């Protein structure tokens, strides 16, 4: 019996967690992104979205518990905000009826 096939959405979620884990593995704490790890992630994974923006400023806004680290929940809040902004942009680009 074959394992069930993942949906595109399930695959997307796994990929996002994988990106977080990839960058979080840069130091001894594998469950959070340090300032340097977050800066690298922003620069390499979101070069167009965050073009010209300071990663430290983005991190300050995301770091809800003020521990100077980004955990998976804080990272996913950023992803959620980006999805919402992308959706709004797509809606704005649709021809008006």
Automatic annotation (TrEMBL):
Residues 50-85 form the EF-hand domain. InterPro entries: EF-hand-dom_pair, EF_Hand_1_Ca_BS, EF_hand_dom, S-100_dom, S100_Ca-bd_sub. PROSITE patterns: EF_HAND_1 (PS00018), EF_HAND_2 (PS50222). Transmembrane segments: none annotated. It holds the Pfam family S_100. Keywords: Calcium, Metal-binding. GO terms for molecular function: calcium ion binding; calcium-dependent protein binding; transition metal ion binding. SUPFAM superfamilies: EF-hand. This is EF-hand domain-containing protein. The lineage of its organism: Eukaryota, Metazoa, Chordata, Craniata, Vertebrata.
